[in-house]
Inverse folding.
């Protein structure tokens, strides 16, 4: 049974109200005088309680940082997104309209400049009203309200369950507020208190402070508020929801006019100003400033990537909750590497390639991401979807960022297909071989009897129980140069290279260049394992960002730079947070890179761009089983871009999810879809303009076959001796294209090559689907 409340402290009784009034009034007096003095005729118990409360309170309290929004900026300083729990932009008092200052004083505390933090006259007036009615009216000064808002802010930051919200305070809380108000008046000037209050107080929803409120309702700065606008905003602070002019225009207008009356009565405005203002309408011009990446438009996926970087880095807090608090309340300025103008084009091109609103494209997507060689700066990160919850009826929106790994908001990567072949070629060159060397690409079947060299594995070898990597066309099972095999993306050629090379050397290149298998360790990213040879033709799930960064190494003479998104992070007080700086290291011998580029340049120039993209350019095509993952990754010396088109849910590929002959963009796709169908055209559309903003220097010269070793075959050396100014300038006609034309009518045309293969492994190796076909002898890659 609840204890019976003493009538002295039961505020529902007249006696309780009297005691409360005299107790608080006496307390106000002694606080103002700086000491506690007994007051005759006051109930001793009540005074003792007040004395105990006051004695227990410190003379001041810690004012924790005020919540401020954080902003993410692009490379040019343009705002990409804003994050807040409380939308607030603190401004100096001089940047607040004089009318606004007068309005808030007139309606909330007209004796603000006369009292010392507590207003006995106001308290007396309120008590009389409380004694004669069942409702309670306040008598808080602006200083007390400022204190109360500071205490609420502290409680929110510390997670305290205690509340000092108006209407829910007990007398102990009120006494504390009074004491702190007197203390603050000794520490701060009146103007400082008024400035603090106007920047702290809630106006509506999540709009805190007069600057945010002015922007929300009038789309102007606080310094530009006129008389009637100031009166309307000042009238809102008492009951923000009730007097919201958008939701309750009539109440808001009535309240505004009462504030105008107060301003006229107190001499804050003239009769003429009052008459003009009171006749005006609300004259709203609302604007919004949404919080988070959803408001970032085409930059939303890059925004999401940046927020995931912050929320996963203990530099910004010990726990995820701490990091979220800093992001949403800490007033961070996050400067990034994004070229938002170029990113807008990337997003438009991605949508043009795969229409997110087409009914047929529910599980078909496109992604494009660019990295700057020599810095690792992420320049673009876009896709064809809208950032938001997935729809059951279309693929128009998703939170998945197809460019990155799962832990950073991604979808877990996609099979790389033939974009993985350059790593085998690098390993081949590293072991002392050349692009002009001839290999026998006839072999189609591998069994446990075939030992693959893998020095980093137990026993130094690995094998497959049965593997039959097939080519797109039968005519390519023959002898050819390594250059020819890579140019036409012949599976049997790449497999033969790898068979004569240490698989660990190949896998090591992928690790050193940051290309990880997204499912290496129970669904977590890790180095690609050399245990299963199928990785050489793209069985591993990799991310577009990692391929763009890795291929940027080829553009940068073998120097790999870790991809990075942020250049600096600072808070509102100017404190700097540590972010990754440019981190580059020489990972490939420049000679091997020049050799590789000699072939990759021809692929991009002759088979993909055909004169549209100003060069020098280079790159590699890629398509997995059933074309559920198609790629083109290409670059200049100034920008490296990975373009991907494929499925999300059916990304590993089977007959049911194949893109061959599927309905795409609401019309039937070709019978054989490959990288040339959607991914390469997306890359060309984007890079046609993008390359003009960045460096386009020479890739260097590939080593030519020595004259003494010249063979009588028509197979070509790896490349011409120098780069052309534009990919449309063919200084040398390729001899091997003549040779190939007699063996394959399909592969003798531009963008009509590549291969498909199938893979099965013994129980000692991971049984993954290979990344480049099913062994049906039909063309897969572009």
């Amino acid at each position: 049974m609840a204890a019976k409340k003493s009538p002295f402290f039961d505020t529902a009784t007249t006696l309780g109200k009297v005691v409360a009034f005299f107790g608080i009034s006496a307390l106000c007096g002694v606080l103002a005088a700086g000491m506690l003095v007994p007051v005759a005729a006051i109930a001793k118990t009540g005074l003792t309680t007040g004395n105990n409360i006051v004695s227990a309170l410190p003379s001041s309290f810690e004012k924790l940082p005020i919540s401020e929004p954080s902003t993410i900026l692009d490379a040019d300083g343009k705002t990409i997104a804003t994050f807040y729990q409380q939308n607030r932009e603190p401004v100096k008092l001089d940047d607040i309209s004089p009318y606004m200052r007068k309005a808030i004083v007139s309606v909330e505390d007209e004796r603000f400049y006369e009292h010392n933090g507590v207003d006995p006259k106001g308290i007396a007036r309120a008590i009389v009203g409380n004694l004669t009615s069942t409702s309670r009216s306040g008598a808080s000064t602006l200083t007390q309200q400022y204190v109360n808002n500071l205490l609420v802010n502290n409680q929110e930051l510390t997670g305290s369950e205690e509340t000092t919200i108006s209407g829910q305070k007990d007398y102990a809380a009120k006494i504390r507020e009074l004491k702190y108000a007197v203390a603050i008046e000794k520490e701060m000037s009146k103007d400082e208190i008024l400035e603090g209050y106007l920047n702290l107080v809630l106006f509506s929803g999540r709009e805190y402070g007069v600057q945010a409120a002015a922007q929300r309702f009038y789309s102007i700065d606080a310094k530009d508020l006129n008389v009637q606008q100031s009166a309307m905003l000042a009238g809102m602070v008492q009951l923000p929801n009730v007097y919201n002019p958008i939701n309750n225009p009539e109440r808001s207008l009535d309240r505004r006019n009462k504030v105008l009356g107060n301003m006229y009565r107190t001499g804050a405005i003239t009769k003429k100003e009052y008459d003009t203002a009171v006749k005006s309408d609300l004259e709203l011009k609302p604007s919004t400033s949404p919080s988070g990446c959803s408001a970032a438009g085409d930059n939303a996926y890059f925004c999401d990537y940046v927020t995931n970087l912050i929320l996963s880095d203990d530099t910004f807090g010990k726990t995820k909750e701490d990091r979220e608090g800093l992001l949403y309340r800490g007033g961070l300025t996050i400067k990034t590497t994004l070229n938002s103008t170029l990113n807008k084009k990337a997003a438009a091109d991605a949508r043009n390639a795969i229409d997110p609103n087409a009914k047929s494209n529910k599980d078909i997507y496109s992604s494009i991401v660019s990295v700057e060689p020599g810095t690792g700066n992420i320049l673009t990160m876009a896709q064809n979807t809208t950032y938001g919850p997935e729809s059951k009826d279309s693929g128009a929106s998703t939170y998945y960022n197809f460019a990155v790994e799962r832990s950073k908001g991604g979808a877990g990567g996609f099979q790389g297909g033939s974009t993985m072949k350059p790593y085998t070629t690098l390993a081949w060159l590293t072991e002392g071989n050349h692009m002009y060397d001839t290999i026998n690409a006839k072999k189609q079947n591998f069994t446990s009897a075939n030992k693959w060299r893998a020095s980093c594995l137990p026993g130094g070898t690995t094998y497959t129980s049965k593997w039959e990597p097939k080519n797109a066309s039968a005519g390519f099972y023959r002898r050819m140069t390594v250059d020819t095999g890579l140019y036409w993306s012949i599976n049997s050629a790449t497999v033969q290279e790898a068979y004569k090379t240490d698989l660990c050397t190949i896998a090591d290149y992928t690790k050193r260049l940051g290309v990880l298998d997204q499912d290496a360790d129970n669904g977590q990213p890790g180095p690609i394992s050399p245990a299963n040879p199928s990785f050489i033709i793209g069985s591993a799930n990799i991310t577009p960002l990692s391929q763009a960064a890795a291929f940027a190494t080829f553009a940068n003479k073998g120097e790999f730079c870790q991809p990075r998104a942020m250049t600096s992070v600072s808070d509102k007080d100017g404190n700097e947070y540590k972010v990754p700086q440019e981190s580059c290291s020489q990972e490939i011998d420049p000679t091997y890179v020049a050799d590789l580029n000699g072939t990759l340049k021809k692929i991009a120039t002759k088979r993909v761009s055909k004169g549209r993209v100003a060069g020098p350019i280079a790159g590699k095509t890629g398509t997995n089983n059933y074309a559920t993952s198609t790629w083109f990754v290409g670059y200049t010396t100034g920008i490296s871009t990975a373009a991907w088109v494929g499925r999300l849910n059916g990304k590993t590929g089977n007959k049911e999810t194949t893109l061959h002959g599927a309905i795409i963009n609401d019309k039937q796709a070709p019978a054989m879809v490959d990288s040339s169908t959607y991914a390469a055209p997306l890359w060309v559309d984007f890079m046609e303009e993008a390359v003009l903003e960045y460096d386009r220097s020479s890739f260097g010269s590939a080593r030519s076959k020595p004259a003494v070793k010249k063979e009588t075959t028509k197979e070509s050396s790896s490349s011409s001796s120098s780069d052309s100014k534009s990919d449309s300038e063919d200084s040398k006609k390729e001899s091997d294209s003549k040779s190939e034309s007699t063996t394959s009518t399909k592969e003798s045309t531009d963008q009509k090559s590549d291969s498909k293969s199938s893979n099965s492994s013994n129980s000692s190796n991971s049984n993954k689907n290979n990344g480049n076909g099913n062994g049906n002898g039909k063309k897969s890659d572009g």
